[in-house]
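Dissemination and training. As part of the outreach component of the grant, students in the summer workshop were shown how a complex can be specified as a set of sequence lines and then modelled as a single object. The example used during the hands-on session is reproduced here so that future cohorts can follow it. Participants entered these lines:
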Amino acid sequence: MERTLTILKPDCVRKQLIGAVIDKIERAGFRVVAMKKTRLTPDTAGEFYAVHRERPFYGELVEFMSSGPCVPMILEKDNAVADFRTLIGATDPAQADAGTIRQLYADSKGENIIHGSDSAENAAIEAGFFFSAEEAVRVN
Ligand code: UDP
Ligand code: MG
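and obtained this result:
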């Protein structure tokens, strides 16, 4: 079993798509290990996306990610990282395969509904950003 970290981004919450997106995730075989609704500040959003600090979209990304509540989750499945990237689709919804979460629900490359970790190593770091060790224990 492998873990990945996802965030239902502020646009997902605003569009009242939390349930629809979690339905897609569970139907694809992912187990929800941990979940909360929270709100990033500009500082914490900037820290989460620190790897993109030098990119031209960083300011907008930080502003968007701190613009409202979001729903981070730890997910578990065989091959979770790669399978989840397949499920969400390309960063730009216009390039995302039919039936992927971003193709179905996202408006733009910036406001693209959902985050997915890009490696198991980063998934563990990102999980620690939102959840304590106790919260990350699978109890079911
Ligand atoms: N992003 C953006 N413009 C870009 C590329 C990325 O606004 O040209 C935003 C978008 O919200 C994306 C996030 O920055 O999800 C992180 O970028 P990354 O390249 O890691 O894409 P992801 O892994 O989310 O597909
Ligand atoms: Mg990424």
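The first strand starts at residue 2 and ends at 8. Students were then asked to discuss how this feature might be tested experimentally.
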